[in-house]
User: What shape does this take?
Amino acid sequence: MVKRRENEVHSDLELLEALKRQALEEVGGEVPKSAPDPKKAILAVTGGFVQPAVKVPHSDPAARDRVDALWHKEADRLAILDRSREFLLLATYPGSLARGWIRVRDLIGGRLPSRVAAASGSRDFIAVSLDGKSLCAVSVEEYEDWIVTHSFEDGGTAGR
Assistant: This one.
């Protein structure tokens, strides 16, 4: 029997409930057509030539706090969250690629990477601006967490 990790989610419903507990609510309506294809976003974060904007070593005793603060610094610079604190989220859980983007609103601000990790059971996630032009992600590597940023020239296509 395979044991579930703490906070591990296995369905859209479980994820949406867990996000809600972390003050991240799904916003009704469609994912904008400008959203990049999720596979394109994943490649922007995990491709072989990706260079992170910031690296935070796992050995840093304050690593989680630093990732939270540095992610927000990069996300603010790229205007990932709009005035209503809405953005597109691709969280990591079994089937997440098939689900695609979730349009969410951050109800409290601050510590978003830690809250997404608490909800999904994984520290990896991708956030994209509603216009589909900017990406800010956390990628867990062997010895460090990477904060990866990317700009999509023309916005995206195939929003789900």
User: Anything to note?
Assistant: The first helix runs from residue 12 to 21.
